[in-house]
Input
Amino acid sequence: MTKFNPAQTAKLIKAHIAKAAGYDEKARQNEVSAALYLIQAKAELPHGQYMPWLKEHDIAPRTASRLIAEHVDPAKRAARMTKQNEKGKKDRAKAAKAEAKEAKAEADPIRTEVLRIIGGLDAMGIEDIHQFLQEQGYANAPETDDDFDDDMEDDA
Output
């Protein structure tokens, strides 16, 4: 068995962590390799030197703890992967919905114009809206809220 070399072990751990991104079997193998090297380093280093060693070699203590915990208890890794997959699905669905909405607005110039007008209407009062409707050629626009209510009753 080769003698423990802290610097070389840190390089190996960092290389395996870098390759561990993803969900495939190769990523899993790299996570296991990193965990095994971390366990070896923890066992070989003098008491109280493990955390300073991690920091010295720019290895995140949380990442190290997670890798070791998931190596010891694979159910923890499965739970993390499921959570990441669900978050990724939600993010992708949200992005797709936003893209579809943008594409629909670009494809329908009338809809875009209506949305622009409605956006302007939000800042208007009832008198402004009435004037705007008359300017747009809606001669039958109700004068007041009461007239609108009467028109609605007539339609019913």
